[in-house]
Design goal:
alpha/beta; 2 domains; 46% helix; 12% strand
């Protein structure tokens, strides 16, 4: 029997498949199973672009970073819990190859932040 996080991931992936069909998109967003931060850091290198959304001062905006990386097939963007990532988590992510980015001045709910980042990526990489 699957755990609850596995069931949620399966449900979310079904939703993304149906939404992609409805929009006639060839590229389908994949939602991975829930994993620990440490486990995720071990996989950051497999992505073309690994990002971590944060409020760290002097962080590039997602918009400017995407202009510097005009292509990317496999992208991950970490969106933190309420209150954001801790400074040590950001440091660990940077050492693992993640690039800190700002997604704006507003504090967003995690669900809203995920939609905002997905929309920005879709806009930047759509033909």
């Amino acid at each position: 029997m699957q755990n609850k996080s596995g069931e949620k991931s399966e449900r979310w992936n079904k939703i993304t498949i149906e939404a992609s069909k409805q929009c006639k998109r060839n590229c389908i967003t994949k939602i991975e199973d829930v994993m620990t931060f440490d486990s995720l850091m071990k996989t950051a290198h497999i992505y073309d672009l690994s990002l971590i959304a944060c409020t760290k001062p002097h962080t590039k905006t997602l918009k400017s970073l995407l202009n510097e990386h005009p292509s990317g097939k496999k992208i991950i963007c970490l969106i933190g819990p309420e209150g954001g990532f801790t400074p040590s988590e950001i440091e660990i992510a940077e050492k693992a190859g993640c690039i800190p980015v700002s997604i704006g001045h507003s504090t967003l709910r995690i669900e809203t932040a995920a939609i905002a980042v997905s929309s920005m990526l879709l806009y930047a990489y759509s033909a």
